[in-house]
Design a protein that fits this description.
This protein is an alpha+beta fold and about 240 residues long. It has 8 helices and 6 strands; from the N terminus they run βαββαβαααααββα. The chain has one domain (about 10-145, about 155-195): 3-Layer(aba) Sandwich (Glutaredoxin), CATH 3.40.30.
Length: about 240
């Protein structure tokens, strides 16, 4: 069985934003990427922090990211960090739950774009839920119905649990996941990432089991000449 490329990444990392763009490009070319969400700043305030108070490493990362290629037709990174650096606990929990629902790739794209292109603050579980709902329960345009007697379309899903999840109810008000499987998935991803002993994100394990980290991981995803990998590694399994 051919191994997938594995990427450990956080949503408030500019290099991880670029990695996400290139992961989508590679997927369009038939190369699957197993994206695993981790928090590289778990001690960040749950209210987020102004960009003026952001960790210096994050600003340095933005400077590095600005020098790297972007897929044709995709949005480039802004010149500055978002006004508020988001705590990504809720985003990570939502992504872990989305794996169960099969919408994780789309949610990853929406979360990264919301933070880095739309300059949205996603520390709040309620803001993250809005993004989930946009994907799983899209809004119905009311224009065609505003001047007629036709009733608005209604989702008649009889499964209450599924309807709640489609309405964004996959994360708790405190930003944690709702299911045990998602909680274990988050814990396993974090343990696997920490075992690699590479704190600079994204961290990528290629199909040969070789490790790439930081801007080197983005360069590898972009298909550019990359430096010699740090060391070969066994590929951890997905929970």
């Amino acid at each position: 069985m051919k191994l997938k490329t594995i990427v450990y990444a956080d949503f408030n990392s500019p290099l991880c934003y670029l990695a996400g763009l290139w992961a989508d490009r590679r997927r369009a070319e038939g190369i699957e990427t197993d994206w695993r969400a981790v928090e590289h700043l778990p001690s960040l305030s749950h209210l987020g922090v102004p960009n003026a108070a952001a960790p210096p490493a994050l600003l340095h990362e933005l400077v590095e990211a600005a020098r790297l290629p972007v897929p044709e037709g995709r949005d480039r990174l802004p010149d500055a960090l978002p006004q508020i650096i988001s705590n990504t606990q809720a985003a990570t929990a939502a992504y872990a739950e989305a794996v169960t629902d099969g919408v994780h790739d789309e949610l990853r794209r929406h979360l990264l774009r919301a933070i880095w292109i739309e300059n949205r603050h996603l520390s709040s579980a309620y803001e993250v839920r809005r993004i989930i709902t946009d994907i799983t329960y899209p809004r119905v345009p009311i224009g065609p119905y505003s001047s007629s007697d036709l009733p608005l379309p209604v989702n008649r899903d009889p499964d209450l649990w599924r309807a709640v999840r489609r309405s964004g109810g996959t994360i708790a008000p405190d930003g944690g996941p709702l299911t045990t499987i998602a909680y274990r998935r988050i814990r396993t991803w974090r343990e696997q990432w920490r075992a690699l002993d590479r704190p600079d994100l994204p961290v990528l394990i290629d199909e040969r089991g070789a490790l790439h980290a930081g801007q080197d991981a983005v360069v590898w995803l972009a298909g550019q000449p990359a430096p010699t990998p740090v060391r070969p590694l066994p590929v951890p399994s997905l929970l």
